[in-house]
Amino acid sequence: MIKSSIPTNHIPKKEGLITDVHKLVESYPRVPITVDCVIFGFDENELKVLLIRSDLEMYKGKWSLLGDFAADNEELKEAAYRVLKERTGMTDVYLEEVGTFSAPQRHPGGRVITVAYCSLLNIQHHELKIHANELHWHSFSSIKEMAFDHKKIIDTCYQWLQKRIQEHPLGFNLLPDKFSLRELQNLYEAILGVQLDRRNFRKKFASMDLLIDIGEMEEDVPHRPGKLYKFNYEKYEKNKRKWVGIDF
Amino acid sequence: MIKSSIPTNHIPKKEGLITDVHKLVESYPRVPITVDCVIFGFDENELKVLLIRSDLEMYKGKWSLLGDFAADNEELKEAAYRVLKERTGMTDVYLEEVGTFSAPQRHPGGRVITVAYCSLLNIQHHELKIHANELHWHSFSSIKEMAFDHKKIIDTCYQWLQKRIQEHPLGFNLLPDKFSLRELQNLYEAILGVQLDRRNFRKKFASMDLLIDIGEMEEDVPHRPGKLYKFNYEKYEKNKRKWVGIDF
DNA sequence: GCAAAAGTGTTGTCCTTACACCCATGC
DNA sequence: GCATGGGTGTAAGGACAACACTTTTGC
Question: Of B185, B235, B94, B237, which is closest to residue A246 (Cα–Cα)?
Answer without folding.
Answer: B185
